[in-house]
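Q: My labmate handed me this sequence with no annotations at all. I'd like to see what the chain might look like in three dimensions before we decide whether it's worth expressing. Could you predict it?
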Amino acid sequence: MRILVVEDDAQIGAAIRSRLSRLGHAVDLETDGAMADALLDTESFDLVVLDVMLPSMDGFTILRRMREAGGKTPVLLLTARSTIDDRVSGLGLGADDYLVKPFDYRELDARVQALLRRQSGHANDVVRVGTLVIDRSNRLAELDGKPLALSRQEFALLEILASRPQRIFSKDELLSQLFSFDKEPSTNAVEQYVTRVRKKLQGSSVEIRTARGMGYQIATL
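A: Here is what I predict for the chain of 221 residues:
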Protein backbone atom coordinates (compact mmCIF):
# COMPACT_ATOMS: atom_id res chain seq x y z
CA MET A 1 0.00 0.00 0.00
CA ARG A 2 1.12 3.60 -0.54
CA ILE A 3 1.68 5.62 2.63
CA LEU A 4 2.63 9.26 3.16
CA VAL A 5 4.56 10.02 6.35
CA VAL A 6 4.64 13.70 7.34
CA GLU A 7 7.19 14.16 10.12
CA ASP A 8 9.76 16.94 10.57
CA ASP A 9 11.95 15.02 13.04
CA ALA A 10 14.49 13.42 10.70
CA GLN A 11 15.27 10.49 12.99
CA ILE A 12 11.63 9.60 13.70
CA GLY A 13 10.62 10.08 10.07
CA ALA A 14 13.42 7.85 8.80
CA ALA A 15 12.60 5.17 11.38
CA ILE A 16 8.91 5.14 10.46
CA ARG A 17 9.68 5.04 6.75
CA SER A 18 12.17 2.22 7.16
CA ARG A 19 9.83 0.17 9.32
CA LEU A 20 6.80 0.53 7.03
CA SER A 21 8.94 -0.09 3.94
CA ARG A 22 10.13 -3.38 5.45
CA LEU A 23 6.47 -4.37 5.74
CA GLY A 24 6.20 -4.00 1.97
CA HIS A 25 4.56 -0.59 1.72
CA ALA A 26 5.61 2.18 -0.67
CA VAL A 27 6.42 5.02 1.73
CA ASP A 28 6.99 8.68 0.92
CA LEU A 29 8.38 11.03 3.58
CA GLU A 30 7.67 14.76 3.75
CA THR A 31 9.09 17.08 6.45
CA ASP A 32 7.29 20.34 5.61
CA GLY A 33 3.60 20.92 6.26
CA ALA A 34 2.89 23.13 3.25
CA MET A 35 4.72 20.74 0.94
CA ALA A 36 2.73 17.82 2.30
CA ASP A 37 -0.52 19.74 1.81
CA ALA A 38 0.39 20.44 -1.83
CA LEU A 39 1.33 16.79 -2.34
CA LEU A 40 -2.01 15.61 -1.01
CA ASP A 41 -3.76 17.85 -3.55
CA THR A 42 -2.19 15.98 -6.45
CA GLU A 43 -1.39 12.44 -5.27
CA SER A 44 -3.40 9.57 -3.82
CA PHE A 45 -2.37 7.56 -0.77
CA ASP A 46 -3.86 4.64 1.15
CA LEU A 47 -2.85 6.14 4.50
CA VAL A 48 -1.33 9.34 5.90
CA VAL A 49 0.78 9.24 9.06
CA LEU A 50 0.67 12.89 10.10
CA ASP A 51 2.64 14.73 12.78
CA VAL A 52 0.83 17.69 14.34
CA MET A 53 3.74 20.07 14.93
CA LEU A 54 5.20 20.89 11.52
CA PRO A 55 6.93 23.85 9.85
CA SER A 56 4.88 25.99 7.41
CA MET A 57 1.55 24.32 8.17
CA ASP A 58 0.53 22.25 11.20
CA GLY A 59 -1.00 18.81 11.00
CA PHE A 60 -4.43 19.92 12.21
CA THR A 61 -4.66 22.40 9.32
CA ILE A 62 -3.56 19.78 6.81
CA LEU A 63 -6.16 17.36 8.17
CA ARG A 64 -8.92 19.95 8.10
CA ARG A 65 -8.12 20.87 4.50
CA MET A 66 -8.12 17.20 3.51
CA ARG A 67 -11.57 16.60 4.96
CA GLU A 68 -13.01 19.88 3.64
CA ALA A 69 -11.89 18.82 0.16
CA GLY A 70 -13.74 15.53 0.59
CA GLY A 71 -10.65 13.38 1.10
CA LYS A 72 -11.41 10.09 2.83
CA THR A 73 -7.86 8.76 3.15
CA PRO A 74 -7.29 7.36 6.68
CA VAL A 75 -5.12 9.60 8.86
CA LEU A 76 -3.06 8.51 11.85
CA LEU A 77 -2.01 11.57 13.87
CA LEU A 78 1.34 11.58 15.67
CA THR A 79 1.97 14.18 18.33
CA ALA A 80 3.72 14.95 21.59
CA ARG A 81 0.50 16.55 22.81
CA SER A 82 -1.19 14.15 25.20
CA THR A 83 -4.05 16.19 26.63
CA ILE A 84 -7.63 15.03 26.12
CA ASP A 85 -8.52 18.33 24.41
CA ASP A 86 -5.84 17.83 21.77
CA ARG A 87 -6.93 14.26 21.10
CA VAL A 88 -10.57 15.31 20.83
CA SER A 89 -9.62 18.15 18.49
CA GLY A 90 -7.74 15.82 16.17
CA LEU A 91 -10.48 13.21 16.09
CA GLY A 92 -13.09 15.94 15.64
CA LEU A 93 -11.26 17.20 12.55
CA GLY A 94 -11.46 13.76 10.99
CA ALA A 95 -8.43 11.80 12.20
CA ASP A 96 -8.98 8.05 12.24
CA ASP A 97 -6.53 7.32 15.03
CA TYR A 98 -4.15 9.11 17.39
CA LEU A 99 -0.72 8.06 18.66
CA VAL A 100 1.15 10.04 21.31
CA LYS A 101 4.94 10.38 21.25
CA PRO A 102 7.03 8.65 22.40
CA PHE A 103 5.45 5.46 21.11
CA ASP A 104 6.43 1.84 20.64
CA TYR A 105 6.97 1.11 16.95
CA ARG A 106 5.13 -2.18 17.37
CA GLU A 107 2.05 -0.20 18.30
CA LEU A 108 2.55 2.01 15.24
CA ASP A 109 2.69 -1.12 13.07
CA ALA A 110 -0.52 -2.45 14.61
CA ARG A 111 -2.41 0.82 14.18
CA VAL A 112 -1.24 1.21 10.58
CA GLN A 113 -2.33 -2.33 9.77
CA ALA A 114 -5.71 -1.77 11.45
CA LEU A 115 -6.37 1.39 9.43
CA LEU A 116 -5.32 -0.24 6.14
CA ARG A 117 -7.47 -3.26 6.97
CA ARG A 118 -10.46 -1.03 7.65
CA GLN A 119 -9.82 0.91 4.45
CA SER A 120 -9.91 -2.26 2.35
CA GLY A 121 -13.05 -3.54 4.09
CA HIS A 122 -11.54 -6.58 5.80
CA ALA A 123 -12.33 -7.62 9.36
CA ASN A 124 -8.87 -9.05 10.01
CA ASP A 125 -5.41 -9.30 8.48
CA VAL A 126 -6.08 -12.56 6.65
CA VAL A 127 -7.20 -12.28 3.02
CA ARG A 128 -8.43 -15.33 1.09
CA VAL A 129 -8.91 -15.72 -2.64
CA GLY A 130 -9.70 -19.32 -3.47
CA THR A 131 -6.81 -21.44 -2.17
CA LEU A 132 -4.60 -18.38 -1.73
CA VAL A 133 -4.28 -17.15 1.86
CA ILE A 134 -2.45 -13.91 2.67
CA ASP A 135 -1.55 -13.02 6.25
CA ARG A 136 -0.87 -9.30 6.00
CA SER A 137 0.19 -8.94 9.61
CA ASN A 138 2.95 -11.56 9.44
CA ARG A 139 3.69 -10.96 5.72
CA LEU A 140 3.13 -14.61 4.84
CA ALA A 141 1.29 -16.27 1.97
CA GLU A 142 0.08 -19.81 1.38
CA LEU A 143 -1.17 -21.44 -1.80
CA ASP A 144 -2.98 -24.79 -1.68
CA GLY A 145 -1.92 -25.08 1.96
CA LYS A 146 1.78 -24.65 1.21
CA PRO A 147 4.03 -21.62 1.91
CA LEU A 148 4.41 -19.34 -1.10
CA ALA A 149 7.88 -17.82 -1.44
CA LEU A 150 7.55 -14.16 -2.45
CA SER A 151 9.86 -11.18 -2.50
CA ARG A 152 8.72 -8.04 -0.70
CA GLN A 153 7.43 -6.43 -3.90
CA GLU A 154 5.80 -9.64 -5.10
CA PHE A 155 3.97 -9.95 -1.79
CA ALA A 156 2.87 -6.31 -2.01
CA LEU A 157 1.50 -6.82 -5.53
CA LEU A 158 -0.43 -9.92 -4.51
CA GLU A 159 -1.73 -8.17 -1.38
CA ILE A 160 -3.04 -5.22 -3.39
CA LEU A 161 -4.83 -7.41 -5.92
CA ALA A 162 -6.22 -9.85 -3.35
CA SER A 163 -7.53 -7.11 -1.07
CA ARG A 164 -10.09 -6.19 -3.77
CA PRO A 165 -10.51 -9.28 -5.97
CA GLN A 166 -13.38 -7.81 -8.00
CA ARG A 167 -11.44 -4.73 -8.97
CA ILE A 168 -9.21 -4.19 -11.99
CA PHE A 169 -6.07 -2.24 -11.12
CA SER A 170 -4.42 -0.19 -13.85
CA LYS A 171 -0.65 -0.33 -14.30
CA ASP A 172 -0.37 3.27 -13.11
CA GLU A 173 -2.31 2.47 -9.92
CA LEU A 174 -0.10 -0.49 -9.15
CA LEU A 175 2.99 1.54 -9.96
CA SER A 176 2.02 4.26 -7.48
CA GLN A 177 1.20 1.76 -4.72
CA LEU A 178 4.29 -0.39 -5.17
CA PHE A 179 6.95 2.31 -5.42
CA SER A 180 7.67 5.54 -3.54
CA PHE A 181 8.77 8.83 -5.14
CA ASP A 182 12.48 8.13 -4.70
CA LYS A 183 12.13 5.19 -7.06
CA GLU A 184 11.67 5.83 -10.76
CA PRO A 185 10.36 2.58 -12.25
CA SER A 186 8.29 2.39 -15.41
CA THR A 187 5.12 0.43 -15.96
CA ASN A 188 7.43 -2.29 -17.30
CA ALA A 189 8.39 -2.94 -13.67
CA VAL A 190 4.74 -3.74 -12.91
CA GLU A 191 4.62 -6.14 -15.86
CA GLN A 192 7.76 -7.87 -14.61
CA TYR A 193 6.34 -8.40 -11.13
CA VAL A 194 3.03 -9.63 -12.54
CA THR A 195 4.92 -12.14 -14.69
CA ARG A 196 6.91 -13.38 -11.69
CA VAL A 197 3.85 -13.79 -9.49
CA ARG A 198 1.91 -15.51 -12.28
CA LYS A 199 4.63 -18.15 -12.50
CA LYS A 200 4.34 -18.81 -8.78
CA LEU A 201 0.55 -19.22 -9.07
CA GLN A 202 0.79 -21.67 -11.97
CA GLY A 203 -0.96 -24.98 -11.37
CA SER A 204 -3.38 -23.52 -8.83
CA SER A 205 -6.96 -22.27 -9.10
CA VAL A 206 -5.82 -18.65 -8.65
CA GLU A 207 -4.59 -16.47 -11.47
CA ILE A 208 -3.85 -12.87 -12.37
CA ARG A 209 -5.91 -11.91 -15.39
CA THR A 210 -5.16 -9.13 -17.84
CA ALA A 211 -8.05 -6.85 -18.76
CA ARG A 212 -6.81 -5.54 -22.08
CA GLY A 213 -6.32 -1.79 -22.00
CA MET A 214 -7.42 -1.63 -18.35
CA GLY A 215 -5.03 -3.50 -16.08
CA TYR A 216 -4.91 -6.59 -13.87
CA GLN A 217 -7.31 -8.50 -11.66
CA ILE A 218 -6.91 -11.54 -9.43
CA ALA A 219 -9.47 -14.30 -9.95
CA THR A 220 -10.18 -17.98 -9.40
CA LEU A 221 -10.60 -20.54 -12.17
